[in-house]
Amino acid sequence: MGRAVVVGAGLGGLASAIALRRAGWEVTVLERRDPPASAGAGIALWPNALRALDALGVGDAARDAGTVEIGGGIRTASGRWLAHVDAADLRRRQGDGVVVLPRPDLFALLLAAAPPVRAGAGVTRVEPGDAATPAVVCDDAGGRHAAELVVAADGLRSAVRGGLCPEATVRDTGQTAFRLVADHALDAGGETWGRGDYVGLGPLPGGRTYAYAVAPSTEVPAGDDPLPWLRARFAGWHDPIPAVLDAAVGPVLVHPLADLTPPRAWHHGRVALLGDAAHAMTPNLGQGAAQAFLDAVALAQVATTDPASLAAYEARRRPAAEAVARRSRTAGTVAAWRSPLAVTVRNALTAALPAAASASALDRLLGTPPAPEEMVP
């Protein structure tokens, strides 16, 4: 193979660097932050994410670093169950359960397996190249990196995408997410829906809990520490939500939720968009990282030094990834409904959905487990 430059050393960028190196590419990774950011609370890896990590050679390490959820589902703020996830049945159908681990631990696993990262190298310009000319990536340290393939993995507000696809714009959802880790032992995870807000919990190793909460941005107060406000807002919700918030340790991460209007194309010359740069989605289905990992595996499988090969990557990944992004935005909208009538109807329909229908929908989201050799880059 030839030379590849990966722009961005987040989860998707590191995954693509690992996959491309395993496929024989000479890989350079550029990251504007120094050191590369490893902050985060927790992350839930569904079976499709674990299969992609298996193809990168780090799947078992991720499983070992996390906790497998033994159950979960959706509840109301009072604690009434609307739906259950049968963890044993999920493992039977998909070959894996849901593994929850600290996001910094997953980042560290990928960073250790990836080519060395050139930190503090922000990208200022990309010449996309063509069939006769290599691409050139220019960094703010004066470097010029020629390559037969450039992977734009620089996130939701991708500078590379902005120069090539200005029509792809960031869409605010009007919601803000809070993520934290608590010293609280949790047996099973799940999500709880209120009126305009919702909370999710997942078990972490070491008797800790990963928690997230989402509320309307207009109701989030200004200030450096949102924890007192979160504790007050969710004080009347079912156990163990108040106890988890009381046991929070470390900073609470605050992020306005947004996604992306689709770009016209995922590839331009020798440049391929990947992960959030191509299909940033809300976190409601837990699929942002998974879809980036699947992008990385697919790109390494089909990319060659001929830029025409990038059309096969887009054809393989774009329909599925953008369908997940649409479903995720819809799921977030429904979870955040606040009209009493809408909430009543939502809860009734969720509770009435047969378990077999829920399992079938989940399998469509996660895909059919392929044979191991089909996932190897």
| Number of separate helices | 14
> What's the architecture in CATH terms?
3-Layer(bba) Sandwich
N- to C-terminal separation?
13 Å
Average residue pLDDT: 94
**Text of the CATH class:** Alpha Beta
CATH T-level topology: FAD/NAD(P)-binding domain
Give the CA-based shape: globular
**Total beta strands:** 19
Instruction: Decide which structural class fits the backbone.
Output: alpha/beta
- Largest sheet features: 7 strands, mixed
Could you state the CATH homologous superfamily?
Answer: FAD/NAD(P)-binding domain
Number of domains: 1
- Major β-sheet strand ordering: 6-5-14-15-16-13-17
Protein name: FAD-dependent monooxygenase
Pfam family, one: FAD_binding_3
Domain FAD-binding: 5-164, 264-328
GO molecular function: monooxygenase activity
Keywords for this entry:
oxidoreductase; 7-stranded mixed β-sheet; 37% helix; FAD/NAD(P)-binding domain; 14 helices; alpha/beta
Report on the architecture of this protein.
There is one protein chain. By secondary structure, this protein is an alpha/beta fold. The chain has a single domain, classed as FAD/NAD(P)-binding domain (3-Layer(bba) Sandwich), CATH 3.50.50.60. Helix content is 37%, strand content 27%. It contains 14 helices and 19 strands. A 7-stranded mixed β-sheet has the order 6-5-14-15-16-13-17. Strands 8-2-1-12-19-18 form a 6-stranded mixed β-sheet. The protein has a 3-stranded antiparallel β-sheet with strand order 3-7-4. Strand 10 (135-139) and strand 11 form a beta hairpin. Helix 2 (47-55) crosses helix 3 and helix 2 packs parallel to helix 10. The mean pLDDT is 94.
